[in-house]
Amino acid sequence: MPSKPLLNVENLEQHFPIKGGFLGRTVNHVKAVDGITFSIDKGETVAVVGESGCGKSTTGRAILRLDEPTAGKVEFEGQDVLAMSKDEMRKMRKDMQIIFQDPYASLNPRKTVRQTLWEAMDIQKVVPRKERNNRIIELMETVGLQKHQIDRYPHEFSGGQRQRIGIARALSVNPKLIICDEAVSALDVSIQAQVLNLLKRLQRELGLTYLFISHDLGVVRHIADRIIVMYLGKIVEVGDTESIFENPQHPYTKALLSAIPVPDPRKKAQRIFLRGDVPSPIDPPTGCRFHTRCPFATDYCRTEQPVLEQKDTETEGFHNVACHYALDIQRGKHDPQYEMYNVREILDEEGEDAATEDKAEYTKTEK
Amino acid sequence: MSEEMILDIQDLRTSFFVDSNEVKAVDGVTFQVPKGKTLGIVGESGSGKSISALSVLRLIESPGEIIGGSIKYKGEDLTKVKNSRMRQIRGNEISMIFQEPMTSLNPTFTIGQQLRESYKIHEGLGKKAGTKRAIEMLELVGIPSPEKRVNQYPFELSGGMRQRVMIAMALACKPELLIADEPTTALDVTIQAQILELIKELQEEIGMSVVMITHDLGVVAETCDYVAVMYAGKVVEFADVYTLFENPKHPYTVGLLNSLPRHDKAQDELIPIKGNVPAPNEMPSGCRFAPRCPFASDICNTLPELEVQEDGNEVRCWIHTEQWDGDKEVQLNAK
Predict the structure, then answer these.
(1) CB contacts < 8 A (A, B)
(2) What is the CATH number of domain A7-231?
(3) Which A residues, 224 through 253, put their C-beta within 8 Å of a C-beta on chain B?
(4) How many CB atoms lie within 10 A of CB B175?
(5) Parallel, antiparallel, or unpaired for β B234-240 and B209-214?
(6) Which end of chain B is more exposed for a tag (fewer CB within 10 A), N or C?
(7) SS (H, E, C) A168-190
(8) Which chain B residues are within 8 Å of A218, Cβ to Cβ?
């Protein structure tokens, strides 16, 4: 990369302790984020996608130190964020803001729009007091709220409008990076489109950088330049948006994309059904974490952890994948170990597996 | 449509009476469900889609009330039948699945106990026979090792697993009509795919009809035969699924499709619908969508009727009537 990235995350790790037992000692850890590395350039939008429990929200919170990460490095404009004192960190947050999913829960119900935005500016000491009222009105106009709504309370606004207040609050301190944690997920499509267009326009006008956390791949395709796909605390695939959508290389990404219903009744995608549920992040599988559900997994996958690297050298641009067989699958040299398109067969097989497990358990206790 | 209708709703009105105000949640809704087919009801929050469904099963609680219209289930008007008959129908002939599998299951009873309850009520099965049926049902919905699961509590199951239990429960008595209210909204896409596939398969197996309530147009395209689009308590468009996606007529439907970010193709820009859904007390007297509609003109101050079009579909919009003298082009965003 030619210039220095705005945000650089290295081997970030977030293990939450599980307390238990008689003395309330830490008995185990939830490995929510388990060593991830990525960087974001200025003016770019990077999306983190994955299913619930994959660690995408935890990543956003760890970067801002809303939860203290257990290990790793976070650099913002070359400064080590994790080494900062509380005071320095508060100043730092002027540059890094976050918009949460739930606009209902993230606004103080007893503060008007004016008070909410004023408070944010007060804490960061950004705009001189005299000019604040004008700046608040300007911000409201920027996000599409009306001037006369300035003294209204959150409950007087609709969901989409509240999300706009959240955006205005984030913008009020002139940040460089905004982390959008499922920022449009709770909104109806027609309103969601309004907010997405707003975010895009603000990026163009103010040169903002976004880390966009979402589970909705339609939204992500629309807004992101680059996409990080996470599974169980690890990055399984990362690349330019078009490359991820047009040429997904990791079996998990493929399954994820094939699972989304297409809003076109004539397009029936051939769907890869995954077996079972996501394993527990307390005791993640060895080797490749996806091997328990991967139709292509072999014994090698069960023991060897794959490295995140560029496999397909013909791909233009940037596209890394963490799968031993990514290339072989693409070239048709590595076949799935079982039927992966028929959900019925998969469910039946699962049932049989569970039955044999039960039997084994039963005979063990018998002895 | 010449098919046999299992459910025929005419001019249904359900209102909530709060502080001497009437909030018209469902305001004259009309639609039919053909036997063995799936009808999708789409709309955004507050459009009245869930209340319509709850009205069918007469599950509207005070201060809400069904104040007009008819709900004919196989010719029988559900708004008029006795409570005892309604109890026979619920769960036995018409069943419902809800969005939140965690809050819809009772956390203090095992899966087996909850499944057995419906067999006891509707078929008078005892504990032993009930458990046997429960295990069969869990197996049908693809729950691994049902013998073990039947004795577990809801908290011991994952979200997808719980939704499958809900489906097992809804299908316990092989209903003729299943109402699924956002059955997969709380689930991850990979699990959603499994659940939708499961509903489709079971539908074929026991020949039931389905009403699928959702805000996700992808789910609609995938599972439904017919679609009713609702806006502010009214059906604005009723069409078969192909027509709806390829030749939408109501400006609201067009707006929804234009504002949908797609994962299956690259788009330049989304075209959102401007403004917000009007609050119930600020509802316009004419077309409900007029304040947000880019085509609205004076005539829209009068409420249009749901009118049958040349292709047999129904639209509630002045543009598609003879009274309209403006441009008739309501175009889908160029693909």
Answers:
(1) 159
(2) 3.40.50.300
(3) 242, 245
(4) 21
(5) unpaired
(6) C
(7) HHHHCCCCCEEEEECCCCCCCHH
(8) 260-263
Q: Is there a contact between B41 and B213 (Cβ–Cβ < 8 Å)?
A: yes
| Predicted ipTM of the assembly | 0.84
| B260 → chain A, closest CA residue | A189
pLDDT digits (tens, 9 = 90+) for A256-305: 999 999 999 888 768 888 877 788 888 899 999 999 999 999 999 999 99
Per-position b or e across B200-219, b if 16+ CB within 10 A of its CB: ebbbeeeebbbbbbbbbbbb
CA distance B285 to chain A (A): 21
Q: Where are the domains of chain A?
A: 7-231, 250-366
pLDDT tens column, A162-176: 889 999 999 999 999
